[in-house]
Each structure stands twice: as C-alpha cells, then as structure tokens.
Specification:
The chain is mostly helical. It has helices spanning about 5-20, 25-30, 35-45, 70-80, 80-95, 100-105, and strands spanning about 50-55, 60-65. A two-stranded antiparallel ribbon has the order 1-2. β1 (about 50-55) and β2 form a beta hairpin. The longest helix is centred in the N-terminal third of the chain and has 18 residues, at about 5-20.
Length: about 110
C-alpha cells in the first residue's frame, strides 16, 4: 500500500465534508455528515456489523460481516469518480440510519 494512501484518503473525505458544509443543499440535507461518518467508523472499530443481503441477481440472501475497513475502503473507492463523490453523503447517511441495503446496493451493483 502506498505510503500516503491513508493520509490522502483522509484529506479526500475531509474535503468532501467541507464541500458538503459549504453547499447549502448538502448542508441542509446532511447537517451532521462528519459526525455520522465518525460514529460509523467508531462503531465498526468496536464491533463488526452482521447483516443479511439479497442482491437483485441472487435468489437467496447472503450473510455479510462488515468491518471498519470494508466501510472506509468502500467510501474511498466510491470517491474516485465524480458520480460516486456525489453519492457519498447519501451513502454515509443511510448507513448511519442502519439502512445498509442502500450502501450494499451501491457497492454491489447489478
């Protein structure tokens, strides 16, 4: 893994939080985005989240265990595209609300 990988990822997410706070629509829709993100990461550091997920192309549900790395790496990868960057606040917010399906549908597209 590149030496600056973690610091670059942190800088990118910090810029996203700032951009959201500076955008009136984003700030109104996601007023606690940074806190929600930090809460998710802290929760996942303490314990994994187990969930059932039924992908649209799979007939049966599968059991998933989600770790801190799974969440942060999924966010990092999503931020590589402009389309993904626009989805990150929504994905964080839905995950925070325990609506994991929205997040999983994004990272496991059809």
């Amino acid at each position: 893994m590149p030496l600056h990988h973690a610091s670059d990822a942190q800088r990118a997410i910090d810029l996203l939080f700032k951009d959201c706070a500076d955008d009136s629509n984003c700030a109104e829709t996601y007023p606690n985005l940074k806190e929600e993100f930090n809460s998710i990461v802290e929760t996942l550091r303490k314990e994994n989240i187990n969930m059932e997920y039924k992908h649209p192309q799979i007939d049966s549900a599968v059991s998933l265990t989600f770790h801190e790395y799974d969440f942060t790496e999924s966010i990092r990868r999503t931020m590589y595209s402009q389309a993904g960057q626009r989805q990150v606040p929504y994905l964080i917010h839905e995950f925070y609300k325990k609506n994991y399906k929205v997040f999983l549908d994004w990272i496991f597209p059809e």
